[in-house]
């Protein structure tokens, strides 16, 4: 009876039903019927499903976890009664042949980067691409990467921002010049694009991806000022705009995405006090005529928490609690104020890890030409 029912359903109704299912149910449906498998493997279905039912979670890479270091996690809005914090539900774990940290994600594809490795992976389809390294590396002293997808054409791109140490003939001394290279997934090669050459980017920084753009903090040598550099993945043009106004002499700033806003988190470091401040700014409006920053959160961390370095806020829960990453996952409780480590792998309170917001999708890397796709 059930088999006859599904056989008689019109294809458009069957597709609409499948589009409403969560990603784990869809994976199971691949094993039910060959016609379903063929439908679920199409790029069109992957695109529609991503737009309708992708719920952001978390992709975590843990250095000390054994045997599987990569975890896909769902957020739990309810408080954990045992520790007064929101729970994290591990959906599944996996490993790759090369253990490379997760840095960010775009439309269900993870970007992993470490010395000698550039990897794009879809843990749902269990496929990955090892992107060839750029050839122009001999004079590079500082480099950072970004990964995202363009708004109109839907092209996935890796962007490399780097500085070169070259001889300035006019001044007869070494000088730093910034440059940019782009790798469009499916082309198999890097290409260099125009750059104004005056900015220095933080070494090993990863661009924050939001609405078709990649963002980096950049330092302008000519004016000795800090800017935010915006790379448009569609037009491949670079523009700049100012960060929020700050007046603290010892800050550690980091760009990321929080919710649907660009986020700049300053981690104040004051050697003369026993407390440090964390300040989170959100960019609420961004356009040709107006850029509006809002100081959304300010809270303190005691010095014995050892929370130093570049903090990346990941999620703000409805009650004001905040999940962050700074070399490990940290949790800030809005009611009691303490910051504490998050135990994901049950190995301890502060497991060294890298994390990125991740919304699972069915995008198949096998649809990209010129790429050597490996299954795991």
TrEMBL record:
Annotated F-box associated beta-propeller type domain residues: 106-307
Q: Which domain of life is it from?
A: Eukaryota
Signal peptide position in this chain? none
Pinpoint the F-box domain residues.
7-45
Q: Name one Pfam family in it.
A: F-box
Matching InterPro entries, A to Z? F-box-assoc_dom_typ1, F-box-assoc_interact_dom, F-box-like_dom_sf, F-box_dom, SCF_F-box_component
Name of the featured protein: F-box domain-containing protein
């Amino acid at each position: 009876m059930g088999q006859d029912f599904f056989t008689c359903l019109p294809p458009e109704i069957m597709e609409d039903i499948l589009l409403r299912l969560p990603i784990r149910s869809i994976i199971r449906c691949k094993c039910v019927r060959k016609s379903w498998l063929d439908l679920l493997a199409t790029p069109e279905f992957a695109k529609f499903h991503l737009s309708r039912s992708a719920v952001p979670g978390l992709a975590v890479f843990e250095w000390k976890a054994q045997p599987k270091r990569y975890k896909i996690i769902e957020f739990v809005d309810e408080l954990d009664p045992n520790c007064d914090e929101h729970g994290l539900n591990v959906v599944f774990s996996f490993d790759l042949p090369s253990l490379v940290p997760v840095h960010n994600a775009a439309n269900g594809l993870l970007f992993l980067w470490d010395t000698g490795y550039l990897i794009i992976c879809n843990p749902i389809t269990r496929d990955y691409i090892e992107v060839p390294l750029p050839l122009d590396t001999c004079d590079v002293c500082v480099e950072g990467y970004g990964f995202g997808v363009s708004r109109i054409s839907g092209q996935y791109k890796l962007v490399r921002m780097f500085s070169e140490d070259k001889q300035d003939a006019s001044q007869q001394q070494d000088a730093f010049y910034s440059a940019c290279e782009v790798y469009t997934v499916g082309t198999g090669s890097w290409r260099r694009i125009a750059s104004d050459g005056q900015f220095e980017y933080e070494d090993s920084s990863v661009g924050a991806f939001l609405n078709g753009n990649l963002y980096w903090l950049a330092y302008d040598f000519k004016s000795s000022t800090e800017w935010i550099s915006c790379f448009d993945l569609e037009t491949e043009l670079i523009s700049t705009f100012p960060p929020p106004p700050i007046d603290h002499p010892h800050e550690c700033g980091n760009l990321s995405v929080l919710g649907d806003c660009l986020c700049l988190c300053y981690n104040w470091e004051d050697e003369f006090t026993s407390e440090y401040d964390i300040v989170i700014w959100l960019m609420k409006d961004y356009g040709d005529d107006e850029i509006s920053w809002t100081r959304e959160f300010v809270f303190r961390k005691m010095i014995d928490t050892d929370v130093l370095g570049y903090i990346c806020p990941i999620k703000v829960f409805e009650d004001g609690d905040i999940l962050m990453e700074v070399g490990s996952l940290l949790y800030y409780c809005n009611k009691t104020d303490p910051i504490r480590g998050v135990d994901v792998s049950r190995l301890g309170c502060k497991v060294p890890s890298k994390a990125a917001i991740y919304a699972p999708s069915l995008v198949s890397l096998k649809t990209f030409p010129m790429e050597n796709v490996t299954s795991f």
